[in-house]
Amino acid sequence: MSTNKWKNYINPVVRDIPPSGIRRFFDLAAEMEGIISLGVGEPDFVTPWHIREACIYSLHKGSTTYTSNHGLLELREEIANYLSGQGVRYDPRKELLVTVGVSEALDLALRTVVSPGDEVIIPTPCYVSYIPCTTLAGGVPVTVATSMEDRFRLTADKLEAVITPKSKVLLLCFPNNPTGAVMDRESLLQIAEVVQKHDLLVISDEIYDRLTYTGEHTCFASLPGMWERTIVLNGFSKAYAMTGWRLGYAAAHEDFIAAMTKIHQYTMLCAPITAQVSALEALRNGKSAMESMVAHYNRRRRLVLQGFKEIGLPCFEPGGAFYAFPYIGDTGLTAAEFAENLLLEEKVAVIPGDVFGPGGEDCIRCSYASSVEDLTEAIKRMGRFIKTRGLDKVKRIYA
Amino acid sequence: MLEILELLQNNSRLTAKQIATMTGREEEEVRQVIERLEADKTIIKYFTLINWEKAGVEKVSALIEVKMSPQRDVGFDAVAERIYRFPEVKSVHLMSGAYDLAVFVEGATMKEVALFVATKLATIENVLSTATHFVLKTYKQDGFIFEDCETDKRLVITP
Predict the structure, then answer these.
(1) Residue A223: what pLDDT?
(2) Do B157 and A128 touch (CB under 8 A)?
(3) Which one of A239, A333, B104, B105 has the fewest beta carbons within 10 angstroms of its own beta carbon?
C-alpha cells in the first residue's frame, strides 16, 4: 500500500507543521567526525554528583511509585520557597504543578488558555517549540521580531503594533534561547503596562533565570498587577545541568493550575518520581554547585565575546542563558550557508538563526556550554573561515 | 584575586590575557596580580598532573603513618622538617587522630620505599613508630579523576 495514502489519515494540523529546521542540520552534523559543536542547547556539565547520589539512594529505598498529580508536596514547597526569593508567593498546594520539563508545562499552559483562533504573541527569535505548540493548541502564532538594535529585547512599541482584538497570550522567554538576551525590570514594566492595557495573559518561560550575568533576573509575575495574569514556567534542566531528567514546573493562579492539572493528570499522570526526588536534592543542597557552573558560563561568555570581537564578528552582549548570537550578515552568506560551510570546512557546528524564527536570519546561535579549550579552538577556526573563504566557494546545500 | 587563583589552580597554562577576558579585567592588571602572587609565594609552583601508569612508568608510592613525640619549643615542626627535606618524600601533613604525620613517599620499587622508611624515617630521633601503606591505584588526585568515563554524551545539535 502506498505510504501516501496514510498521509491522508494524519490530522492536517499535525501534517502541516513543518519539521524543525534544526533537524536537517542535525542530520548533517551527526554524520561528521571530529567536530566541535557550539550547537548544543544544554549544559556541558553532568548533573552534580550529590544529586545523582540522592537519586540512587531513592531507588535503593524503593521510591518507584506514582506521586500526586501535582508532584511531591515537599518538592512543591521547595519550589515555592525558591520562587519567594524572586518576590513571588505561591501556595504549594494549589498554585504549583510539577511537570515533565518546561516543554510539558508550556504545552499545558497553551492548551489551557488558548481557544481556537486566539492569537498568541511570540517574540522571536524563540525556542523552536513555541510556534508549533501554539498551533497544536489551536491558537494562531503571531510573531514579533526583536532585533540586535534593541539587544533582542521586546519593546512595548513592537508589542503594541501586533495586538488585535484576538490577542490573548504573550509568550515570553528571558533570558532568551537563542539570543541570550535578558530584559531588565524597567523594560519589563513597559511590557507589563501593555499587557494590562490589553488584558493579555502572559506565559513566561524562565528556565534560564539563574543564568543571568548582567544584573538580577526579574520574574515577570513579580511586577505590579502581573501575578494573577502570568503563568511562570521554570525547571531544573539548565541551572542544575539536569536536561535529561525532564523536570519542570508551572506556577500560577489556582484557576490556571487546576485547569492545567486536568490535562496533566490524563496525559501524564505525574512527573517521574526519580526526577522529582533529585530535583528536591537540587533545590535543597545544589546552590554551590549551581553557582560554580554559572561562574564557568560567565567566564566562557566573556571569552567567546572577546573571541568574536577579535575575528571581526559583531555580537551584542548576551546577558543570560549560554548562547551568543553573532551577526554574520557582513559575510555575504545567509545564516544557513554560513553554518553549513563552517561545518564542512572547519568542522565547527553552529545553528543558523533563522530556524528560531523572524529576526534571526542574519545570525548564528553559538552555545558556549563547552570547555574553554573547545571554545578557543572553535573561534580560531571561525576566524580562519571568515578570513580565508572566497564567496565563490559557497557550497549551497539548501536548495 | 581568588577567582584568578581558582582559574590557575584548574589550568595553570591559561594566559594572563585569557584570564583577563574570562574575569572581565584588564590584561595588565591580571599580569600584575599574578606576579605579586608569585613573588609572595601565594602561588608556589606550576606543575602538571601526570598519570605515570599511563606513561608506562612504574612508580611505587606509599602513605607512611608516623607517630612521634613532640619536642619542647618546636613541637612537631623540627622532626617534620627532617622528614620533608628528603626528596623521596612527596608530601607531609600533620594530622589529628591516631598518628601524627601523614607522609607520602615515592620510589622505584616497594623494596626501595620500605628501605627508605626503615633506614631513614624510623631511625629519626623522636619518631616512635611508622606504619607503611602502599598505594595500589590512584582514582582521583587534586580534584581530578584519572580515568574519567564521563565523556560528553550530548547530541551534536539540540534546540
Answers:
(1) 98
(2) no
(3) B104
